[in-house]
Amino acid sequence: MSATSRYWHICRISLKSQRAGYEYSLVPIAEKFCQQKIPGSQTREMQAFLLSYFYSFNSPKVDVATLAEAGFCLRCYISEPILKACKKIDSLFIGDKSFTYRDLLPFVLNDDGKTPIILDSDRKTQLLVDANGETKTSTFKFFTVEVLRTYNADASSMSLDNWAYLQTKQNTELKDFLSEFGFQHFSDWALMNRVRPKQIQRLSVRDRHLVEVFHSVYRRDRQNHRQAGAKRCPDPNNTQLQEMLKSLHQRGVVINTPIELTKELKHVATQLRQYDIWSYREPLEIQDPDTGNYITRVDLPNDSQDELDVERREMIEFLHEQLKTALVESIEQQISHRLSELQKSRKYATFADQFIPGLQLYYCQQMSLKDVGTKLGMSSWDQTRRILNPGELLSNVRTRTIQQVIEKILAEAHSKGLTEIPPKIEYLKTVVEQIEAFADAEIFQEAAEEIRAGKSRSLDSLYAQELRFSLNNQKSA
Length: 477
Hints:
Layout: E1 9-13, E2 22-26, H1 28-37, H2 43-54, H3 64-92, H4 101-108, E3 117-119, E4 126-129, E5 135-137, H5 143-150, H6 160-169, H7 172-179, H8 188-194, H9 197-200, H10 205-227, H11 238-250, H12 258-272, E6 285-287, E7 294-296, H13 307-344, H14 355-363, H15 369-376, H16 381-388, H17 390-415, H18 425-452, H19 462-476
Antiparallel strand pairs: 1-2, 3-4, 4-5, 6-7
């Protein structure tokens, strides 16, 4: 299939082709739109044109029928990377795993290629367009439209193909399905209880102390609970937390209250939660319902991996590790840098002491900039934005994080003989583009969307979690 014809052929689930499970179908309305509206355009120009049309709700120059037609073209285009993502997930777990990519298709390849759908002006709701050009909220959400709804070409260097591919891998329903086969999210305490030495090595010295003390108390008591028939990992009780606090003090780690200790333990669990199926990590385990013990999943293959595959997985693990480390360091660095800027500023020096409290109100209590300014006695929303500027802080953290990861990746590639120092321009360009796309998908795309969401933001992204942790550490320092 040519690059341009992707805009009028949609990949759909097929009952006829049971072996493949899918087929490509012509969408005449999309073909007609492309050939009449954008004849002779290059692929990149076609995509930009279609996106500008599809996101033009309430524009006096574009009617809803035209919006829907542009949408059909885009929905056809991204059906292909959705299929590829399902096949990629399948390939990650070769062997007798009780499912194939065909079982994943119904969760994400659910577009019929016939129903006209557009987005509202806020890009939050899918709207169904009827024969009279009237719109109403669609009761069924097409995943292709959800991908388009969350895509922002201006805020990220990620291509639409990569965005569709990554959103498929992060689809909630698809993950829920995989959880039935052991690819599941454990509770914070189960994660802490089952952590492996390889994971502990990637933690900071302080966090290692937390894990070791947690194990010395919690694992000991868990063994007694298992003998008594308990099967779940309950929250650590106050007695256990007090014992952990005492042990931590003996190690020189000062945490004052059980509440603070619980928060820090949960932060460690958040880091461990990064070891999931998307990270190509070591084989997952499941809990035996009879004994409560964690056992290696029998449905994962035990075949030995060849040297190239092992090296590839190690490199991906290294990338995840460096991204997380760089994010934490960049957040602390940029907060310190911004604070220093304010302290040296003639205009805003008097507000420097309110920078950290302001960010805490914004990220920890989810207050709007207007409310933060009012609480801290700033004169206007605009002044509050210039002082705190969470969007600029995010942008600077992103830039610094990517720079650090690129430096580490190039050094690692050089040590393995994969490139020279300095690297060739084309090689460097490719690495930069891939690292930017990866970092955006893992961290910064979601963080930017949270800021743009205004009052409805949830602030649950990894960036927001790490920023809150850094702010709380600075507050208690």
